[in-house]
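DATA SHEET
Item: assembly model
Revision: 1
Owner: S.N.
Input lines:
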Amino acid sequence: ETGVTQTPRHLVMGMTNKKSLKCEQHLGHNAMYWYKQSAKKPLELMFVYSLEERVENNSVPSRFSPECPNSSHLFLHLHTLQPEDSALYLCASSQDPAGTSGNTIYFGEGSWLTVV
Amino acid sequence: QKEVEQDPGPLSVPEGAIVSLNCTYSNSAFQYFMWYRQYSRKGPELLMYTYSSGNKEDGRFTAQVDKSSKYISLFIRDSQPSDSATYLCARPTYSGNTPLVFGKGTRLSVIA
């Protein structure tokens, strides 16, 4: 059991659907992240929120839309995805605001997304 | 930013073997490194945090940094089937808004 909880764990959606991934961290951390993990690729940073403010959008297509209503919750809204978006989406958090050196990143279990 | 270079494997060893997992990095200014372990269909979990000044041992696991060759290694002694996972090394960024850059990970299978 990690301090970062993600739901749903598995999601299958059609290309015209709208769905959302949810993340909650119980660690009192100040930064939260969305990563994408595809086969044979390194972890790709998608979005960074620090102190509830989005500080990085790593050239992610607009069909992915993040939301951070407070320091404990993070959402990833999905709309008109493509089959190549099928991947493991990982939420993570770190104690200090983003950009602080020495930060350890704590990951959730991930949400497996399949786009059909 | 260039990620750390890591052989993706897969690496398959018999139970009880000593495993060596390696990453290379480019900037000698990096002061610490991390190893994460990721079981199948799970998120990565922090396994070890090591400073570039020396080795760190934790049970059957030893993390080692060779600053002269810019090599970081994770050794697993008496490997067990439960060690079968993907191991990711990570280095600090010191810039931007993410603290770490990850390697692609090495998939390890320990066969009973």
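QC remark: Chain B touches chain A through 26 residues (CB under 8 Å).
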